[in-house]
Known about the structure:
Blueprint: E1 7-9, H1 11-19, E2 25-28, H2 32-37, E3 39-40, E4 44-45, H3 51-54, E5 63-67, H4 72-83, E6 87-91, E7 104-105
Parallel strand pairs: 1-6, 2-4, 2-5, 5-6
Antiparallel strand pairs: 3-7
Amino acid sequence: MAYRAQKEITPQEVAEQLSRGKDLIMLDVRESAEWVEGHVEGAIHIPLGELMQRYHELDSAEEIIMMCRSGNRSGLACELLSEKGYMAVNMKGGLSKWTDINKLVR
């Protein structure tokens, strides 16, 4: 896998875009137990371990914001999807830096 500089976005930028009503495609790659504890409203859930079997469920023509707890797994997911031709953006800092409680589903 060749390294590519990843496009990044902050959790605050994502929350701001959502509050303005922008439609975002967000993919949460955390494990199911983490997802149940709370996730961003409207996000799609595909655990990182299932991503290579399920990436075809995503639209390769749309930019996808990848998220996890800290930004590490989502960074790896960005690399994996980028290799498949997807436009993946890593939410740096992950959900541990998320501050907009109104956009979380529990």
